[in-house]
Design goal:
This protein has 284 residues and is of the alpha/beta class. The protein has a single domain, classed as Rossmann fold (3-Layer(aba) Sandwich). 42% of the residues lie in helices and 15% in strands. The model has no long low-confidence stretch (mean pLDDT 96). Pfam families: adh_short_C2. Belongs to the short-chain dehydrogenases/reductases (SDR) family.
């Protein structure tokens, strides 16, 4: 038997998107509102949130609303309030744990503040988002959580240790969530984007030697787009993926088949020989 697809299959449902004011978070929101979902955009930059909300309202369909809430994912109180706001907006069944940032530098020169900042946002922020959303999802009969990981989760990126560790930890958090909360019909998955042009990757995109190295590691030979990631996240949030949980899906042009990016040229330009601790080389 053939079935007719509902024109707005997410109508009546609410999604919370952390880091929703720009980049991949905004790309996810675009896909959701066109399928009828109400979105609660959560981020620290209120001005950017409102500008993004205005854009989304112009393409929203099926009764979708676009709402915003100021949120710092490193603050438990702030995350609690954001989750409550999403629940107050309607049937809160979808979460996109997207807030995060990266940084580069050698291990021996990485400050504790930089380490704590990246881990605090990328990993602890996702933990708090999941912790304070799952009771709402369970009360509505279940739901779907998608975390934005990275190819840096499974593939080493030299000179990006805090970021790599945060994404590897995030993927275990997702697997734990899926295993523990499947009994409440809550699914949890992660998406591993490759290089996608956003504000966060601007530094990489402007250095030809690094950009070209990224492209050489991608069998498909192009960078991604926020639409590429948004469509995959949309699939994982909806009923189309109702038997998928606890998995991490790469969307990276095949980059995961090869090696991580080589950002050493940038480190050499900035630090010279200091990019490594002083001492004899194992290659000498």
């Amino acid at each position: 038997m053939s079935s007719t697809r509902h024109p707005h299959p997410l109508s009546g449902q609410v999604a919370l998107i952390t880091g929703g004011g720009s980049g991949i978070g905004l790309g996810c929101a675009r896909e959701l509102v066109q399928d009828g979902a109400t979105v609660m955009l959560a981020a620290r930059n209120v001005e950017r949130l409102e500008a993004s909300a205005t854009e989304l309202r112009s393409i929203a369909e099926g009764g979708a609303q676009v709402l915003t809430v100021a949120c710092d994912v490193t603050s438990e109180q702030s995350v609690t309030e954001a989750c409550a706001a999403a629940n107050n907006a309607g049937k809160f069944t979808m979460v996109v744990a997207n807030a995060g940032y990266g940084g580069g530098g050698p291990i021996h020169l990485t400050s504790l503040d930089d380490w704590n900042g990246i881990l605090g946002t990328n990993l602890t922020g996702a933990f708090l988002t999941i912790k304070h959303s799952v009771s709402h999802l369970a009360a509505h009969g279940g739901g779907s959580i998608v975390a934005i990981s990275s190819i840096a989760g499974p593939v080493t990126h030299r000179f990006m240790t805090p970021y790599d560790v945060s994404k590897a930890g995030l993927e275990m958090l997702i697997r734990q969530t899926a295993d523990e909360l499947g009994c409440r019909n809550i699914r949890a998955n992660a998406v591993r984007p490759g290089l996608v042009p956003t504000d966060a990757t601007e530094g990489i995109m402007t250095l030809d030697v690094i950009l070209n190295d990224y492209l050489e590691q991608m069998p498909l030979g192009r960078v991604g787009s926020t639409e590429d990631i948004g469509k995959l996240v949309r699939f994982l949030l909806g009923d189309e993926s109702s038997w998928i949980t606890g998995t991490c899906i790469s969307a990276d042009g095949g980059h995961h088949l090869r090696r991580g990016p080589n950002i050493e040229p940038a480190m050499e330009m900035v630090l010279g020989d200091a990019r490594y601790p002083a001492g004899p080389s194992s290659n000498s």
